[in-house]
Amino acid sequence: MLTRGGWLVARSRPAPSSGALSTSRPVLSSGALSTSRPAPSSGALSRSRPVLSSGAQSTSKPDLSSGTQSNSVAWSISGTIPSSTQSTSGTVHSASRAQSTGTVSSTEVQDPCLSDFWMSDLGLFVKDKLILQSTEWINDGIINAAQMILKKQFGSDIAGWQSPQCSKKVSLYKVVLDSMPFIQILNVSQCHWIVVSNMPFKKNNDCVYIYDSLLMTKISDSLVTTVCSFFKCHSTDRLHFDVVNVQRQSNDYDCGVFAIAFAAELAFGRDPASSTWNTATMRCHLLHALEQKFVEPFPKNGQRSLRLGRRIYKSHPVPIHCVCRMPNDPQKGMVECFSCLKWFHISCCIKDEGWNSRRKWKCGECSNLLQSISQQSIQCRYRKC
């Protein structure tokens, strides 16, 4: 105990009385001010994450159970959409779309234009129409649609017109004999469209004409195999692949349009080598032809004058063998008939596993011929000729 001025001063800490100031943490009463974080009451301001009410705007991530927006910022209740999320056609191309109830769906919106059908009977989509209106490459869907129209337009007088998808597996092609004309659009190297045909048609013709807007100088083995897989020439043992001197494309994306123009010109009985097309209107003409489902000759700038002998740009003779009328395949063994001296694929003609390559072998035609001669000699001996 200490005395100061007659007063007793104690060193011990007195017990806090009601309303006295104390440094200890007081028990909070109703309406008392405290430095601790109070429990949020109705309408009170809090730094904690609030639960979104109807129409409330928040930068925090709201509860998804109520069906509200799952993006970072919600749009207004009135359903108005910011101009930055609207397209020219009025379709929203963002991750959410405002609905009439004021809530926003988190379903991703895909462009409905590209996935819609343009002409369902031809298998064309809206994206195919946009390709024709732009400078993109012509795809196999447009090529197939044009061939379908030409096939229906000219009937069975001209063979071919088979789907470009058959090139993925050559066995899907239907066989075309050399006794009738054919027109076929093919894709080479998966990046270029050409036309192969035996037109102008001549019976027993040993030529396959290649109409190429880039004027290829070398015939690939894959192209020869593809053509020989559906075109069977039995009149000769040598097939000539002739590249025709036609108009060249002035860009790197119009090969498909030129291929359809070449095919249409051949179908109408005209020679593509003597024509010059107006490249500025070719895509519009093709678009109109697909919409009308009728192909007319493409607009031309004039006629080309070719000197004698200049119609063929390059010629590539290719020997064809066997009953399958295919070229030589290094992966397949071949055998020569000792009678007619023609070469045949072992896999096509010999089914006997015990066949000896050292023995002389005769093809089926020569064997039948020899058998018929033997039967005639037996009959003559029986009749005592």
Number of strands: 18
What best-fitting shape do the alpha-carbon axes yield?
Answer: elongated
Identify the strand order in the major beta sheet: 7-9-10-11-13-16
Query: CATH superfamily membership of the domain at 118-319, which one?
Result: Adenoviral Proteinase, Chain A
Distance from first to last alpha carbon? 166 Å
How many helical elements?
Answer: 8
Q: Low-confidence spans: pLDDT under 50, at least 5 residues?
A: 1-12, 16-36, 38-110
Q: Give average pLDDT, whole number.
A: 73
The CATH topology of the domain at 118-319 turns out to be: Adenoviral Proteinase, Chain
| CATH hierarchy: architecture of the domain at 118-319 | 3-Layer(aba) Sandwich
Order of helices and strands: EEEEHEEHHEEEEEHEEHEHEEEEHH
Classify the oligomer: single chain
- CATH top-level class of the domain at 118-319: Alpha Beta
Decide which structural class fits the backbone: alpha+beta
What keyword list fits this structure?
six-stranded mixed sheet, alpha+beta, 8 helices, 18 strands, Adenoviral Proteinase, Chain, 385 residues, single chain
Plain-language structure description:
The protein has 385 residues and is an alpha+beta fold. Among the domains are: 202 residues, Adenoviral Proteinase, Chain (3-Layer(aba) Sandwich), CATH 3.40.395; 49 residues, no CATH class. It is 22% helix and 17% strand. The protein contains eight helices and 18 strands. The strands form seven sheets. The chain has a six-stranded mixed sheet with strand order 7-9-10-11-13-16, with helices on both faces. The protein has a two-stranded antiparallel ribbon with strand order 1-2. It has a two-stranded antiparallel ribbon with strand order 3-4. Strand 17 and strand 18 form a beta hairpin. Helix 3 packs parallel to helix 5. The longest helix has 19 residues. The radius of gyration is 42 Å and the shape is elongated. It starts with a strand and ends with a helix.
